[in-house]
Amino acid sequence: MIITKIVPYFLGQDINTASDLKEFSDVEYSLFEREGIFRTLDDERFFHGKKLTLIELPWDIIVSSTQGKIYKIVLQQYMIEKKASNRVFKEMLGVLTEKMGKYTEHPFFSKRYIWDTSEGNMILMQGKKYAHPTIHVVYLFITASFIREQRI
What is the DSSP annotation of 61-127? Predict the structure, then answer.
């Protein structure tokens, strides 16, 4: 069983009932596309969500919807220092392993851990911001399985 709710958002929630969301502007959609992130699902939309404090840090939230339902919640933590990014990544891995159990996949030597279930998947990943390679990022992607029904 994966975590399906990041207060106040949850997978499968009607996007019109979600609070504190601001849809991406045309410029933001363009920036995402320049970074290789395209809208490929039916009526796919991206939103900035309410910030969340987790492991004593404020995380940015991006919520994605398709066909009027939330299918993805992304938590992002940006840092300048790699050591800080490594510490946050390791701490999040510990928290998720405690709550979810051992991950189902971890590609060799990668900074990516995957928990895959019938409800969907969670991916904890560490990397650098595409357009700003000096900024380190820790991401947590939570994705609903119902998007598997859509053809990409």
Answer: EEEEEETTEEEEEEEEEEES-HHHHHHHHHHHHHHHHHHH-S-SB--TT-SEEEEEETTEEEEEEEE
